[in-house]
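Review this today:
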Amino acid sequence: MTTPPMPDADNALRDLALRLLATSYPGASLPAELHLLVGRIPDGLPVALPVPERAQVAGTYVHGPKDIIVLLDTDLPPERVFAFYEERLRDAGWARLAAPDLLSISGGFTEPTRPLSPVSPRQALFCQGPHGPSLRVQAAAPPGEVLTQVRLDLDLLLGQPMCQPIQEGRQIVPSLTPPLHARQMTRSASLGAREFYVRAILESDGTLTDLVTHYAAQMEQAGWSQTEAGRGGSIAWSTWTWDGGQDGMWHAFFYATQHQEGIGVV
């Protein structure tokens, strides 16, 4: 019996990292173009991506031709990082999405008495025109660390609804309240130019099926249409679409996992 050769450790680690980054559930299709670049930003970007002086580029994750994530380390505090990008991008014709606009976008997993806002003082969203491209800047100085960690999410896709003027009270994702037999313990959210991510952990006496049915009813009531659904062991998932009129067609991916700490929903 011949033992197959062991894969090169660096290549195996790279392939594992790409699979973990690219898929949200087993069997999901992978983008045709995936790259991890250590210590550099890819050449030939269609837009200039400014980098603070003395900042060190940790690396870049290219998730298809339109989605690029760059990680930086800098000695600037977070507030100066945002000031740097606001000044440099404004000179290049970009505009920062105002905080009141962000605050008007609500929804996702929440409790009736505790509305969820996706706004964080550690991030800012910039758009180059009403249809994109967009750049989301996140900056934070972890406790005990000297340098500020910066993440740049560059989205080159045109026709981005989030870059268009936002009406007060606009809600893309419906407010999803937990069932009576569940208690929502933690929640988090992030906002991009064409994506809204919400995650919550619940403590519940009900089953995973009960929880999925409960949230699906709220999605349908808000006008979303379920396109696919599946269940395997402790995981359940479904996909949804919503016609937002002038906001375009939106797509949502819902999944729930059951574990010892509770049920996690995204």
Summary: Residues 33-265 form one domain. Confidence is low (pLDDT under 50) at residues 99-105, 113-121. The chain has one domain: 33-265.
